[in-house]
Every structure is written in C-alpha cells, then in structure tokens.
Amino acid sequence: xxxGAVTTAGTTDRYLLRGVAPLGGERVDMLLAGxxxxxxxxxxxxxxxxxxxxxxxxxxxxxPGLVDLHTHLREPGREDAETIRSxxxxxxxxGFTAVHAMANTTPVQxxxxxxxxxxxxxAEAGWVDVRPVGAVTVGLDGEHLAELGSMAHSAARxxxxxxxxxxxxxxxxxxxxxxxxxxxxxxxxxHAQEPRLTEGAQxxxxxxxxxxxxxxxxxxxxxxIIARDVLLxxxxxxxxxxxxxxxxxxxxxxxxxxxxGIDVTAEVTPHHLLLTDDLARGYDPRYKVNPPLRTAAxxxxxxxxxxxxxxxxxATDHAPHTREDKDCEWAxxxxxxTGLETALSVVQHTMVDTGRMTWVDVARVLSSTPAxxxxxxxxxxxxxxxLDVGEPANITLVDPSAVRTVVPTEQHTASANxxxxxxxxxxxxxxxxxxxxxxxxxxxxxxxxxxx
Length: 452
Ligand SMILES: NC(=O)N[C@@H](CC(=O)O)C(=O)O
What we know:
By secondary structure, the chain is of the alpha/beta class. The protein has 2 domains: 6-62 and 387-445, Urease, subunit C, domain 1 (Roll), CATH 2.30.40.10; 65-373, Metal-dependent hydrolases (TIM Barrel). The protein is built from 12 helices and 20 strands. Strand 2 and strand 3 form a beta hairpin. The protein is globular and about 65 Å long. Its EC number is 3.5.2.3. Pathway: Pyrimidine metabolism; UMP biosynthesis via de novo pathway; (S)-dihydroorotate from bicarbonate: step 3/3.
C-alpha cells in the first residue's frame, strides 16, 4: 500500500498518523483530535479504537504546516486568473496551511473593508488561513500612505504591508511607513525595484539580454533600494522585510545589515533558487517574472544565503495569469509565475537533495520563520509551531522519495503559467491538516475539505 493511504474509516476530526518521521527524526505515532496534536508516542504504540482515520505514514516526513509570506490570490478583480478558493485549494495541495495574500488586487487591499473581505472569503473557503497583506500606499500609487492602522486593527489583523508589484520608491514615504507600523508590530515588505533604473526592462541585464536584444534590468536597481531601506530601517528602528531577493549583491547587503544588528528579513522564491536568465533565449514568457531570473552566480549566491541564514524564508510569489496575459509575445506578456504547488519540491531539489539543508531547516524557512515575520505564530490558530502535544494540528506530510513530472494543467491553481512544466521534481505532498482537519489526503484535496 502506498504511504499516506487512509486505511480505516473514522470520523473526520480524529486522525492517527502512524509511523511518521517528524522532521526526519525518530518515527512516531501521532493522534490528532479536537484540532490539536493530542498524543505523540513511539511508533506502533497508538491504536485507533475505530473512531480515528488511520494514515500510514511509513516513509513520510511530518512538517509543521507551510506558511507562504507572498501569494497573489487575484480576488477581488482578476477572478479569471485565480480566486481565493482556487488559490487556497492549490496552497493546501502544496502543503500550506497559511498564506499571506498580496495587496495588488482590484480594488487594491488598502482599506479595512477590502482586507476584511479577503480574510472572510478565505475563512469561508477553509483551505488555509488567509492573512491579507495591506497596501502601503493608496491604490499602490506610491504617493499617499494608506490607512495602515485601520487595516491592522480590523478583523483581518494585518501585520504585513506591501505595495508588491511596485516599489515604495519615495524615501520619505518609506520612512513614514516604517515608523507607522511600529505601533502595531507590523512590517513593511518592500518590492525592491528602483523604477527609473528599470523603465521598459524585460529581463535581467547581462550577457543574455545583450545577445537576444531584450531591455535589461540591472542588479543595481534591486540592490540600491535594499541598501537605502536597511539604512532607513536602522534609522527609525523598525522592521523591514525584503521581498523576492534575487541577486548576489542583495545577499551581501542583507548579510551586512544583519551583521550591524538591523532588523531586516529577506525571502527568496523557488524559481530564483533554480532557474537562470538563459531560459529567456527561447522568448518563452513562462520565464518572464519580476524580479527577473538572474545568472548562475546569483542562483549560487541565493542558495548559499538561504543555507547560512542570511535569507530567512522561501516565499512563492505565486503569480497566476490567464492564457491571454501569458500566451503572447514576450514584451506583451505579464510578469509572474505560479508556485504554490511546486515550492516544497523545488526546495527539496535545490537545498535538501544537494545536502545544503536538512528538513529541520526546511521547516524553519517554509513554516516557523514566515509565521513569525507575519506574526501568526501565537494564539489558538498558531502556525509554524513545533509538532508538540497541545499545539494546533497544522501538519504537512511529505513523501521525499516520490518523483513527479510537473503538468501545469493538472494543478489546482486556475492558471497554467508554471515555469516548471515538463520538469521532473522530487517530493510529493501526501497530506495536509489544518487544525486537525484533512484538507489534502492521498495527495489530493479533500472534496468538501475546504468547507469548515
Ligand atoms: N512577481 C511577478 O512577476 N508578478 C507579480 C507582481 C510583481 O511582483 O511584479 C504579479 O502580481 O503578477
């Protein structure tokens, strides 16, 4: 029988995970009941009295439920590309139990009303906990500070603020935002892109852009903003988060800032851990993304930065787009790639299977640290917590020995713009539990599993 198969029918709120390896450690039996981890005991010592569904966990790694700091769910406004329901179902399939929903929707998530709407629809869908990100500026206009406080104090309890897709390029506005969020322990997540240095840019500026004749986007456009922002964060004593860092120079800057004691965190995407700008040679817009794919030396630097803790988290930047927006010539195509259903596999492939990280490290960069940055690591719905008795049962079971070929049209996201289509990747999410309720079993979303 395949690992992860459910062998006994029982109620849907009690699960016995038999023989799972928490973070690759000693195999144990784990009983989930009442939304929490009720018992953990040596393998083979817990038995279902018939009222729990038994999951065969042989060969599976048990991780705390994954937390994404950077997801584009597109609702409201672009439900043709993704809805909160489809995007969160895809997230559960990818092993996530919480996602931070980016603010560049239509209307923009820049008021308490819009963030509460997104939060509420996410809760009704029930696949993962949706934590809305609030815009820094009104309508992402880069000029007027949005009502950060009212979003923070709304039912959505916003803690992460970002104009992602656009840079908060005005230094005085960035300073004000950094100062303002301190009042509610928030963080500004900056999309580091100096707009004047990237006008018309289509891909990384370098040898490949020169050869194929696409307008280049220099590394310095990212690095100049990061350098400025870490100094601003230091000056006002606030928390800064750097979105989708992509260059070797950016890693150096964050390393320097951390060495100085500046309160900065940074994320890297799965695609920047694996893909390079060489892929642009075919002019296939699947590989068009913001920030752009960089060079092999940059890929090496971000892997090293992730392994040594300079980069704190892996965040997907899941950016679904319709066929109309992607299946066209390069210059006309939208920037962005899907990523929720491949993130864990790409991290296993680039970091675990290469010996650079352990599963304990994976839990840190894909669960506990993103939960801490988003301030969702405490309270009854805590994410990213260790798998201990009494903790919320937010759990992802992974089969690291599985190998699969990515077929974008078979994924659960409503869009097919994965850059990994046709690639063989290791690892398979076998089951996901959100507060003890299975959202994914036997590798498939549980029908009705989203509805609470
Ligand atoms: N990452 C992307 O390439 N696209 C993002 C926004 C952005 O960061 O540009 C999107 O919303 O599509």
